[in-house]
């Protein structure tokens, strides 16, 4: 299995478990996560969700082989597993806790904007390298990163796509706390257990009220980003970026306007 899901003591745990490929996410993995989140919405026993990876890697983001093989003509249809996962996570009424250690690339970082309590290890490294692949932000990150970190810092991370560490992620408001790697998972599990012990209706209402001001903006932004991302995925710059990646060379964007 590349995604492990367990239900125990009121917590749904979703764990990336594809270490040989740095937890790179395939369409099938997105579908599994979406199904687990949607199932949790119907399970009254589940009162919190925990998303985690491995001690040295959260996720390397999209599995590019799988991603390109299933991209078709570049259209990013709403029925694709990645968008089912996005909608399921953003729409989850249960509180979502994330525990991030090691690299969190692309959607590995942007998905954190849709979690409620985000904790990372001191070895965590975040990046949103969309422009480096000839693409654009996704999962409403074009607005959510700026809301959290401010426009100029968000522009630096989204335009340059360079990696940044745990302390900077904390300063940007992406994570709530930085912990020693050995303590991360137990701490996150403990926080999820605290949520389970609190009145479920109160937690759900608090989450809904906090997210209410941004709900329409997030939905609209995800739709706009989706269309832009799909168009750019079919473009020449993305083709050059992916070709260079697989050929293990530096891409040359100088010939494009």
TrEMBL record:
Where in the sequence is the signal peptide annotated?
A: none
* Entries under InterPro entries matching the protein: ClpP/crotonase-like_dom_sf (IPR029045), ECH/Chromodomain_protein (IPR051053), Enoyl-CoA_hydra/iso (IPR001753)
Which keywords does this chain's UniProt record carry? Isomerase, Peroxisome
Entry keyword Thylakoid = no
**Localization (cell):** Peroxisome
Q: Does the keyword Isomerase apply?
A: yes
Name this polypeptide is given: Enoyl-CoA hydratase
Which species?
Massilia jejuensis
């Amino acid at each position: 299995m590349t995604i492990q899901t367990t239900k125990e003591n009121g917590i749904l745990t979703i764990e990336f478990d594809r270490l040989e490929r740095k937890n790179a996410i395939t369409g099938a993995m997105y579908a599994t996560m979406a199904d687990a989140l949607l199932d949790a919405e119907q399970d009254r026993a589940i009162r919190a969700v925990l998303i985690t990876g491995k001690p040295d890697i959260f996720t390397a983001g999209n599995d590019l082989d799988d991603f390109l093989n299933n991209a078709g003509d570049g259209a990013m249809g709403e029925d694709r597993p990645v968008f089912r996962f996005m909608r399921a996570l953003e729409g989850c009424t249960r509180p979502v806790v994330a525990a991030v250690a090691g690299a969190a690339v692309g959607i590995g970082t942007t998905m954190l904007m849709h979690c409620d309590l985000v904790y990372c290890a001191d070895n965590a490294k975040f990046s949103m390298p969309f422009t480096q692949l000839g693409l654009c932000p996704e999962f409403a990150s074009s607005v959510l990163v700026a809301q959290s970190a401010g426009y100029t810092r968000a522009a630096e991370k989204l335009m340059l796509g360079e990696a940044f560490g745990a302390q900077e992620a904390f300063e940007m408001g992406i994570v709530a706390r930085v912990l020693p790697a050995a303590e991360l998972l137990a701490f996150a599990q403990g926080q999820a257990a605290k949520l389970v012990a609190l009145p479920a209706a109160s937690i759900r209402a608090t989450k809904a009220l906090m997210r209410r001001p941004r709900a329409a903006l997030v939905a609209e932004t995800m739709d706009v980003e989706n269309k832009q991302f799909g168009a750019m995925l079919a473009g020449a710059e993305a083709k050059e970026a992916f070709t260079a990646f697989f050929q293990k060379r530096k891409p040359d964007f100088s010939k494009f306007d």
